[in-house]
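Lab meeting prep.
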Amino acid sequence: MKKSTIWILGIVMGLSFLSLLYLQVSYIEEMVKMRNEQFDESVKRSLYQVSKNLEYDETLRYLEKDVAETERVALSPQPVSPQVDVEGKEPQAHVSYPVSSSSSDFELKTTMMKPSGLPKAMISRKHGENNILQTSKALQEAIKNRYLHQRVLLDEVVLNILYKASDKALEDRVNFKNLDGYLKSEFVNNGIDIPYHFTVTDKDGREAYRCPDYEDKGSENSYTQILFPNDPPTKISFVKVHFPTRRDYIFDSISFMLPSLVFTLVLLITFIFTIYIAFRQKKLTEMKNDFINNMTHEFKTPISTISLAAQMLKDPAVGKSPQMFQHISGVINDETKRLRFQVEKVLQMSMFERQKATLKMTGVDANELISGVINTFTLKVEKYNGKIEANLKAEDPNIFVDEMHITNVIFNLMDNAVKYKKAEEDLLLTVTTWNEPGKLCISIADNGIGIKKENLKKVFDKFYRVHTGNLHDVKGFGLGLAYVKKIIQDHKGTIRIESELGVGSKFIIVLPLLNN
């Protein structure tokens, strides 16, 4: 799959996941907003009903008090004075019961009628029907009178509440225990079954009551309701309620949406990781192809030279010239060593599949080891009109290392400097050693072409080479620096690179001393 295709696929899928994630987050925010509005509406509806219940309680108390007073007056004995009508007939008895102190003009009258002296058999059917009609009208009139009485009584209670109730202390008007019960029942009726706290205050904010388990948590989102809306402004009072677990209650109601959001995030992260792996695999494939191309070129050159030398040995004239024979033999030997060295570098790949290389540790004088490498490498540097400067100033050069692998590390770094030298400038290679507390530091610096800053972190990667493609001006497999880093790490040391494009590069190795 082409890199551009992967990019397009990644962008499309990434935008799709981000859009899905945005929609889910927007939906959750909208649900939270809706749940907050529903909660607010339920609380306000509950508090309004609580205030109505308190008004009903107050009305009921006045009614009970007034009825009790009326019954007491009605049951007390009243004197009755006899009366004689103008015709001299037996008088009718009238008994009056006052209804209340404020409705003395309204009386319920009971008239004792004289029974008829005629025989029952002489009462006509028509006369009986008239009596039934009169009785029905009398009952209707009595019901009407009772209704008028109750209405007058209620009007009087309302007037008393309006003119007298607000003058009482708030503690006398409200039973706070009943208030707590009303709050709890109304909240439950409206679907709110979570802890709450409340206070009762007057218009000036003075607190008249506070629930026993009151706490301030959640009081920043409180709800206020007037207890008696009909009271005058100067006598008004409030109940203030807040819910400590309101936020948890809101989010618990939408918790079913959180798993889908988490799964979407997991899918998005998995997709990003998959795209990253795809690009990394493609890059690794490109580096391996580069490695194979360079390896083919590296192997082809010594094999061709050996083959040509072998053909020359078949020439009888070569056998007659010992000097020519020795020269050709030396070429075959050198190219064989070169080929063996390249094969060894390829075999080093197996080391990276294991967690740790097999090391034969021994005490080594680093200054002597580096001096030996410099003496061996001087001929190759002088071939390019270069030179090596050695500043081996470490006072304690003793380290506990695998001598062969550390030698290869120093040789690889020097060989790397030769490969990336400037074509128009003579090579200058500087090797320095010095001590830091408990450590030996080795620096190998050159005046080569340098490395771009964006490539510095990649130079120690396996198969990575700063130059790519089929350009063979710089030979190698991209394994040298990866091998160097692994060997230094296996010796409990560190290696870093400092480089500037066009100026040169410096590799700094830090290894623990032998006594540490």
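Slide two material, second protein:
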Amino acid sequence: MTSGVHLPSGWVTFVFTDIEGSTRLAQLLGPGYRPVLREHRRLLRDTLARTDGAELLTEGDSFFIAFPDAGAALTACLTAQRALATHDWPAPEAAPRVRMGLHTGWAEPRDGEYASHEVHRAARVAAAAHGGQVLCSAATARLASPLPAGASLLDLGLHRLRGFDDRERLFQLIAPGLERQFPRPRTADAVAHNLPTQVTSFVGRETERAELRRLTAGHRLVTVLGAGGAGKTRLAVELAAGMVEEYPDGVWFVDIATVTDPGLVAFAVAAVLGLRPEPGRRMVDTLVEYAAARRMLILLDTCDAQPAACAELISLLLAGGGGVRVLATSRESFGLPGEVVWRIPPLSVEPRPGGAESDAVALLLARTAAARGGREPAPVESADLRRVVRQLDGLPLAIELAAARLRVLSVGQLAERLDDVLGTLDAGRDAAPQPPRDELGWTGNQQDTVDLVAASRGNAPPTPATRAVQRSAAERHLTMQATVTWSYRTLGPRAARLLRWLAVFAGPVDLPTVEWLLDDDPLDPLSVLVDKSMILAEPHASGSTYRMLDPIRAYAARRLAQAGEERAARDRHLAWSTRALRRAHLGPDGRPTTLSLYALDPLAGEVRAALRWCTTGGSARDGLRLAGGLDQWWRERGLAREGRLWLFRLYGRMAETGEHVPDAELAAAYHMHSLHAGADGEFAEELRYSQQAEAAARRAGDAGLLARVLAGRAAPLVDMGQFADAERACRDVIAWAHEREVAGDALFAVLSLAELLWRRGALAEAAELLGAARPVEAAHPADRGRRSVDMLLGMVALARGDLVAAHEHLLVALRSRMSHGFHRRACDTLHAIAVRSAAGGDPLTAARLFGAAQATRESLRSTPGIYGAYWLERQAALRREMGDVAFDEAYAQGSELGLEEAAALALAVEHPDLGVDSTRFAATGLPTPAPAPAPAPARPAEGCC
């Protein structure tokens, strides 16, 4: 260190750097190494030592610098790495890869140096890094603020640094211009294995495991042979997992099935061990040198994918050192000296001593329970289970496939198909799966080794930024497509067609739907898709449903279009959606039933998918019919805006294609649009489409349709505050409908008129009108679930001060609206019951219900309508009665309630007859009755008394 340099004290950040593989680099470059080293020193001094850091030591290729500020130290390291990466070196292989480590601790310099364990901790952090990587301790991460622009710290977890007993949390500096992908840190607690985690239990094989363990302990190379599906990999992994403690340098699993280039076998093993290429040296030499002094077990799986390359690598590893053992799985042996070949037997199908089930049956039992959501097969199914495993000869893969079949079949049904076992289990499996490749022939798993190959051959790898972009694109666009293509190419024609056609469905489908779609027995192709996990089968009490993951659906939809089948499939889905909506309005007897919006909820996703097709490639007329099937659902679910947008798109499709839509259907669509616009607060649009609906209905010449359209004319007038005009419009359409004997179609006008009469205090006329409307409402399946007559009679009773009638009518309305899914209208009823509670002397419940109703209304994006001013007036009166603090507290409590909870609170309000001060009986002079259950809905004499 140069004398006179000021050394920071207090919280000091120590930085250590050195060149990874400097010895190998010096051997490779010879005399050219000195200029590279000199240039490396210059770059680091320019970026590290010339900041506010104090250089303490420079020796060979190493730097030791102290900084008074952690943020400045990280900024200096980032600048240094960028300078090294962008510098013009004599050749790509001459570029030094510098690792950097930082740690911050309390230190005081003495005699020009630091005698502190914090220095040693910083050195160990640097030793854990790889060339091009910047690591820092948790202390540095905590104190480094602000970070350099665009930079962040990636948490690598807890690690035990060599020489320290505690664990240190390490962070990697991430920033543009820095490489991001590195092997695990070189720490003392490196993971002892990378064995794949098994998601299912390992069943049986006690004898086989004991024998194979004995062989592995006594021989350095053991090869497990067997046919495909014999369970080689699973047994080998299970065995290796129990031997981790015996190998201090780890047990390492390498899947050779993903390696398609023989030259990449050594790279695949090296990548698992965390090794990187060294300049001018073969990867296999680096690998052998690393393994020579270590005691480890390497599990090479599916070596028959690259038998020659595996044999060569195994020979070199075994010859390089005595601590390495190899357990391999393959369909053929290597023929190497010292190799022990062990052939895996099938699972035993014979019962164990003592009467216990055989290993094969035990496996099928376990997998069957998993396939059935944890429910084990019944004892009566035991005979069928034994028959299945015997026919399968105890082959584990076949048993797994049989269990998977039980997602769509019972054990008995599967047993009935045993005459054609292969046909039942392997339908569509006539093509052997191949690893997914891109257009260059690389598999997705090989992307991380491409740069290693380039480096080993002296080629310049891509820059970190370019590599990040390429890798991101591959992961997002290529890898998923390649993975699905791999499975898709193994499908037979029927399974592939079913997969394509199922892509038109947005959600799960049941077996009858699959049968309807395929117009054929779907068991064979559906089983293929479930087995290959391209379709997920989900068991329910009423039967299994089948669901496709979104990425697979997108892929299948693309294939559908490529096959020229999209129009046919989507038109069939449109027909299914239309039929499903129609059936939701019918009872089991096929007759119209009270509409429940809950029956429409499961269909919404399919309707949206069908509407999307109607607006892009299908029929606008069909789309208008489909949207009409969810007429009230859009508004009651707070989706009036979405309903309007679909209609706008369908109008555009009509204009684009010139498709003719009959006036009657246009009138219905425009009328629905008007109601959507009103619910969404677009009152001018509401009136415009109401007028267009009237014009189309008059052209159609349908009196009932025109009555329904005209009955809705009051709504936009009310929304715009034109109450007198709205009342006049209601009376006109009611009279007009009576003259033409379509009075039932004017029900909406009757209800609107009753609301207007209530508003101006004409309660007797309103009650009389509603009393006559009750049978009309009951005759309309689409309307009676709303119980609008009871809701309005309750409002009339509230205005008259008759809490008994109000209570009975309002609770009837609320129960019906909740049980049939009319959530927006239920908000009005909650408001009304809040008013009734306040009038009945229960202000706390009233305030809570006001809060709940308003919160739900806001979540549904619903306008308050004609009652809005009344609710505000009643809330203001309640606030004055309770005081601001008490009212706000109760109101806030209510706003936290969900709609179901709020409805339960409202329905629990005590009936006024149960109170000792019941006004009804006091007014008539009758004695107050004993408490009794709430009576049926009130008689409609005057509607409420």
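Talking points for slide two:
Residues 425-480, 920-945 have pLDDT under 50 and may be disordered.
The longest strand covers residues 10-19.
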